[in-house]
């Protein structure tokens, strides 16, 4: 194979706004603030930006962002679908564009007022005709209901328990308690709180669900060569992958041989195939956590443990600092902020710069994943 | 088991009847606010057969494999020829949830209710979402949580919902 993305590009700037249930600014303004913060972090002028990548669900388009921040001539722009499944692919698309000479300075971003704005599932006027017709009339309304279905089957088939899901929620909350930027910074979680919490969709309780957040984040991708001249230590994009498995159906992945084998498995095969290291060499992981059961599923999919072992993997503090695989070290979607997983990318960069509020000593490799349960993406970062 | 097959009334994509509801129609709910199916062209025959009290699933007319959700061509042999095959209506609960508020108001009124996934006897890879109820027109919370069990055998029935007929599921008598 002639071309490779391996270490050809690096993330050299990260930026974000505050995270809150309600922020006064518009999504457009939040996007601009996060992007300008990321460019300032990189030490790159906005006029040098010539590539953009975001999510199809992003409401602010490239035209608005480019003219507001003062970008120059833009020669690459891309949007990735499937909600939070697109997060890491935004970096992947920029890496591909920069590595192949289509652009030189790429910005990826996500801005969302999901804290104070509408809940998408409440919309009764605009239903997706497929596959909504097969699920929504029966009261399977929300992502929590759709994933709850898989979670119960997973618990039934493999003996995973609510304590395993609690281990996930607790690890994220403990890291958020170390991160002043996290929405749950001053809100410790106990097992009793978890076990007595109100249900959202049995078997999932309140603490199995991510936060609802207003906020925005961005990062800057340039070539490895250019990265050496930027303000901070480069964080190299070592491997990137997207994943849409055969006969996959998105959040309602109910109509194939094995609904519990999701897009993570597909993305992981490609991700590791391109990498110089394997799951056993990952120092810290930022795994998409819209719902706690996505963690055991992803641990299996990305090869940290065998099939059905994802629940047991969480035991003994494995996901805590000092454990086998420190997880979501800024608090993740469960306890830092839920901005479609973009905060996981920025935290991966902080870990490999050595500046996380819950720093894993000498972290040199980090896995970042996008949403499991939808067509997904993932990146391997290395210092 | 007999499996009479017919070609769907909209095999060419020209669906008629209740399926003409468009996705953007605000009236995609019942008067009470329950969501109605918003069929696409591929799915319309399912709802038209349901209106006759028949549970039919799309099958390839060339290789015979069942497929769900319905789609324009067969992922196994790429044939565009389809038929709608009558199912026995028997299945087993593969998984279930019990949604609690916050929900749309018409659902919150019945919460916690159940939503089940039923794997069909004819092909366990086809898992239809629905509700386990004590009678076809009983409320969504009519079966208590103690009777919800993965593996339980169920039988389809049809309930009226707005202008539609939707599948519901009844526990098979032990």
Description of the molecule:
Chain B: InterPro entries: ChsH2_C, ChsH2_Znr, NA-bd_OB-fold, Thioester_dehydratase-like. The complex is a heterodimer of chains A (383) and B (174). Chain A has 383 residues and is α/β, with parallel strands linked by helices. Chain A has one domain: Peroxisomal Thiolase, Chain A, domain 1, CATH 3.40.47. Chain A is built from 13 helices and 11 strands. Chain A has helices spanning 27-42, 62-69, 87-99, 129-132, 143-158, 162-176, 191-195, 224-227, 263-273, 294-301, 310-313, 332-335, 342-353; strands spanning 9-16, 51-55, 76-80, 106-113, 199-202, 204-205, 214-223, 235-243, 284-286, 365-369, 376-382. The longest helix of chain A has 16 residues, at 27-42. The two termini of chain A are 25 Å apart. With 174 residues, chain B is mainly β. Chain B has a domain at 90-171. Chain B is 7% helix and 30% strand. In chain B, a hairpin with a 2-residue loop joins strand 5 and strand 6 (123-130). The radius of gyration of chain B is 16 Å and the shape is globular. Classes of the chains: A alpha/beta (383), B mainly beta (174). Strand 5 of chain A pairs antiparallel with strand 4 of chain B, so a sheet runs across the interface.
């Amino acid at each position: 194979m002639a071309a490779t993305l391996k270490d050809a590009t690096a993330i050299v700037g990260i930026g974000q706004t505050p995270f809150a249930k309600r922020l006064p600014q518009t999504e457009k303004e939040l996007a601009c603030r996060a992007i300008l913060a990321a460019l300032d972090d990189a030490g790159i002028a906005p006029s040098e930006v010539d590539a953009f990548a975001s999510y199809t669900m992003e409401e602010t388009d490239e035209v608005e962002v480019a003219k507001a921040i003062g970008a120059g001539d833009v020669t690459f722009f891309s949007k990735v679908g499937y909600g939070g499944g697109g997060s890491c692919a935004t970096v992947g698309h920029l890496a591909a564009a920069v590595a192949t000479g289509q652009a030189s300075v790429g910005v990826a971003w996500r801005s969302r007022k999901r804290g104070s704005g509408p809940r998408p599932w409440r919309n009764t006027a605009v239903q997706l005709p497929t596959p909504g017709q097969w699920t929504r009339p029966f009261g399977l309304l929300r992502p929590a209901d759709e994933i709850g279905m898989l979670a119960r089957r997973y618990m039934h088939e493999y003996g995973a328990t609510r304590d395993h899901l609690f281990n996930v929620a607790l690890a994220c909350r403990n890291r958020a308690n170390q991160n002043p930027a996290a929405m749950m910074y001053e809100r410790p979680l106990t097992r009793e709180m978890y076990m007595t919490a109100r249900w959202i969709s049995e078997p999932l309780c309140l603490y199995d669900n991510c936060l609802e957040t207003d906020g925005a984040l961005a990062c800057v991708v340039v070539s490895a060569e250019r990265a050496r001249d930027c303000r901070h230590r480069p964080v190299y994009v070592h491997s990137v992958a997207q994943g849409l498995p055969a006969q996959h159906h998105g959040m309602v992945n109910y109509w194939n041989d094995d609904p519990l084998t999701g897009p993570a498995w597909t993305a992981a095969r490609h991700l590791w195939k391109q990498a110089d290291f394997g799951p056993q060499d990952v120092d810290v992981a930022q795994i998409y956590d819209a719902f706690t059961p996505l963690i055991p599923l992803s641990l299996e999919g990305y090869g940290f443990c065998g099939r059905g072992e994802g629940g047991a993997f969480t035991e003994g503090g494995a996901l805590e600092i000092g454990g086998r695989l420190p997880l979501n070290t800024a608090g993740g979607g469960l306890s830092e902020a839920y901005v479609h997983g973009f905060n996981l990318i920025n935290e991966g960069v902080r870990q490999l710069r050595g500046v996380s509020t819950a720093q894993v000593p000498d972290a040199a490799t980090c896995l970042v994943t996008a949403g499991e349960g939808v067509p997904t993406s993932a990146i391997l970062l290395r210092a | 088991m007999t499996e009479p097959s017919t070609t769907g009334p909209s095999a060419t994509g020209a669906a008629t009847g209740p399926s003409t509801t468009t996705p953007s129609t605000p009236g995609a709910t019942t008067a009470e606010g329950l969501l109605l199916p918003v069929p696409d062209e591929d799915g319309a025959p399912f709802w038209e057969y349901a209106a006759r009290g028949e549970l039919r699933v799309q099958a390839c007319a060339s290789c015979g494999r069942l497929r769900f959700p319905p789609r324009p061509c067969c992922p196994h042999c790429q044939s565009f020829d389809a038929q709608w095959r009558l199912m026995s209506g028997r299945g087993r609960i593969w998984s279930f949830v019990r949604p609690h508020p916050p929900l749309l108001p018409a659902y919150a009124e019945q919460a916690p209710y159940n939503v089940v996934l039923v794997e069909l006897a004819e092909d366990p890879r086809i898992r239809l979402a629905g509700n386990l109820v004590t009678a076809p027109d009983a409320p969504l919370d009519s079966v208590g949580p103690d009777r919800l069990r993965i593996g339980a055998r169920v039988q389809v029935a049809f309930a009226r919902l707005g202008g539609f007929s939707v599948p519901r599921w009844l526990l098979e008598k032990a």
